[in-house]
Amino acid sequence: MDIGIGLPNTVPGTEGKALVDWARQAEEAGFSTLGTIGRLVYPNYEELVSLSAAAAVTSRIRLTTSVLLAPLYTNAALLAKQAASLDRLSGGRLVLGIGLGGRDDDYTASKVAKEGRGRRLDEQLTDMKAVWSGDAIGPEPVRGGGPELILGGGTEASFRRVARFADGWIMGGGTPDMFAQAAASVDAAWRDAGRPGKPRKLSLAYYGLGPNARAQADTYLQDYYGFLGDMARQVAAGAAVSAEMVQSYASAFESSGCDELIFIPTASQPDQIHLLAAAIA
Q1: What is the mean pLDDT of the chain?
Q2: pLDDT by residue (tens digit) across 100-141?
Q3: From CA 110, how far away is CA 252, in angstroms rounded?
Q4: Parallel, antiparallel, or unpaired: how do β-strands 200-207 and 148-152 relate?
Q5: Contacts with 131 (C-beta within 8 Å, 6 or more apart), sequence order
Q6: Which of 34, 70, 130, 179 is the most buried (most CB within 10 A)?
Q7: Taking residues 139-163, what's their average pLDDT?
Q8: What is the DSSP-derived secondary structure letter of residue 167?
Q9: How far from the centroid of its chain's Cα atoms is residue 101's Cα?
Q10: What's the pLDDT score for residue 179?
Q11: What is the spatial distance between Cα 243 and Cα 257, in angstroms, rounded to a whole number?
Q12: DSSP class of residue 57?
């Protein structure tokens, strides 16, 4: 199983230089990918912009939106062009992870109806693939047919969408047992669609390491997930805050059939990179 690391693009107070330095050091530490999470109504850096900055200072590491809330990007042709541009600028390293999102305020601020977003995503994906497959818009992605496409979601409709459009699936949060159960459903939808091989399957896990790990995880995650009410504390409690927890999560997700686990940081100090690298070494 590959181990990736998130960019701290959603950690409040992260300076641009710190984000760029993080990307460079994460590649040097040997991680498989740089992941981003995103939403609109929060003081975070937008994902494609963040990964473009990371692409400029790296040469090997994958660049994964995990996940981009595509229905908020209402111009599918422009989104396809942005993704293809990043893919070419990075030498084909973009992994475009896409999800629906569920926060009412993100949709309200976008002046986009939350209802019907699944159907609109299907239309977006169809349009984006047409752009990537030779539409006059360009630029041409490095890989024929477009960058690697990974879709999120935990419903049967989401799993069928993976089988219809994507190269793989990503779980945004949950336990290894939840991952294994959903991954089996993704594989079943893949087989039912007559797709050869198997989809690539990824998951996220939050982490924070060092003497203040518990406090930093609680502060950040209870703020970021404040809209969930009491459940925000449960999200924070699930963060890996010791090397032993990191190792346990990695082992359990690997046993559950995960191909790549991306550890998302709860702080942006650069020591978090090296503490995670040491924990998984």
Answers
A1: 97
A2: 998 999 999 999 999 999 999 999 999 999 999 987 999 999
A3: 38
A4: unpaired
A5: 76, 77, 80, 81, 84, 137
A6: 34
A7: 97
A8: S
A9: 12
A10: 98
A11: 22
A12: T
Single-letter code of the amino acid located at 156? E
Are 58 and 91 contacting, i.e. CB atoms less than 8 angstroms apart? no
Residues 6+ apart with CB under 8 A from 48: 65, 68, 82, 83, 86
Which H helix or E strand runs over 261? strand 260-265
> What pLDDT is attached to residue 130?
96
What is the pLDDT at residue 102? 86
CA atoms of 146 and 122, how far apart (whole Å): 16
Stated as kind and residue range, the H or E segment containing 26 is: helix 16-28
DSSP for 190-247, written as a single string:
HHHTT-SS--EEEEEEEE--STTHHHHHHHHHHHHTGGGTTHHHHHHHTSB-SHHHHH
Cis link prior to 49 (omega < 30° from 0)? no
- Which CATH entry fits the domain spanning 2-205: 1.10.1740.10, 3.20.20.30, 2.160.10.10, 3.40.50.300? 3.20.20.30
> What are the residues facing 200 on neighbouring strands?
168
104, two tokens: 């009412």
Coil, helix or strand at residue 240 = strand
DSSP 242: S
Angle 165-171-172 (CA atoms, 0-180°, nearest 5)? 115
Tell me the pLDDT tens digit for each residue of 166-208. Answer: 999 999 989 999 999 999 999 999 999 999 999 999 999 999 9
Q: How far apart are CA 150 and CA 96, in angstroms?
A: 6
Residue range 13-33, pLDDT digits in tens: 999 999 999 999 999 999 999
Q: Over the range 101-138, which residues count as b (16 or more CB within 10 Å of their CB) and which as e?
A: bebeebbeebebeeeebeebbeebbebbbebbeebeee
> CB–CB of 179/237 below 8 Å?
no
